[in-house]
Amino acid sequence: MEEPKDLLDASDEAPVIRLVNGILFQAVKDRASDIHLEPYERELAVRYRIDGMLYKVLSPPRALQAPIVSRVKIMAGLDIAEKRLPQDGRIRIKLAGKDIDIRVSVLPTAFGERVVMRLLDKTSVVLRLEDLGLGGARLEAFKNLITKPNGIILSTGPTGSGKTTTLYSALSRINSEDINIITVEDPIEYQIRGIGQIQVNPKIDLTFAAGLRSILRQDPDVIMVGEIRDPETAEIAIQSSLTGHLVFSTLHTNDASSAVTRLIEMGIEPFLVSSSLLAILAQRLVRKLCPNCREPYTPEDAELSQLGIPREALAEGVLYRAKGCDECKNTGFKGRTGIYELLILSDAVRSHITSNADASTIKRAAMKGGMLTLREDGAKKAAAGITSASEVIRVTQEEE
Question: What is the pTM of this model?
Answer without folding.
Answer: 0.85
